[in-house]
Amino acid sequence: MSADRGGTPPLMEKISQRTQADCVVCVLAMVMGRPYTYERVLQDSKKYPKTNAAGQTIAWWKDYLSDEGFEVEMRPLSDPKSFSDLASLPEDSRAMLVFEIPHMKIGHVVAIDQLGVIDPQDHPAEYRSVDDFCGIFRVKGWRLYSAHFWLVRRHNGSTAR
Fold this sequence. Notes:
By secondary structure, this protein is α+β, with helices and mostly antiparallel strands. Helices cover 23% and strands 23% of the residues. The chain has helices at 23-32, 38-45, 60-67, 130-140, and strands spanning 70-76, 94-101, 106-113, 116-118, 127-128, 143-144, 148-154. The chain is globular, with a radius of gyration of 15 Å. The two termini are 16 Å apart.
């Protein structure tokens, strides 16, 4: 399938985690697209604090996306049980869903575009339908921090190519 047919945004590059704590780097590289590789995002991330003065984790990636010319918008999930909003993203956007994996006591994030969801925990990382992801989410007992997702698009309205 051609990624450029009919103005369709290119497929996201499927990137698997290299460590237990680099899901954000992987997902940023996927939603930002070329020229943002895993290596570039990892290097760029060193410029951003990851915790506040109280030692709490902060969403450094929002500043990074903005600094790199992307809009980031927190959007409500109209149906947090089915994630239906993720199956109908605006054509010129990608998204990130941040959630908790309770048994591991960690946060996690996945990348989403019009073709589906990519979880960087998977080796190899592959596209899954939103329905498949939703089923896995429920079976594994993962939990949303809030009933929202992050919509990401370039300031000029197009995703990276």
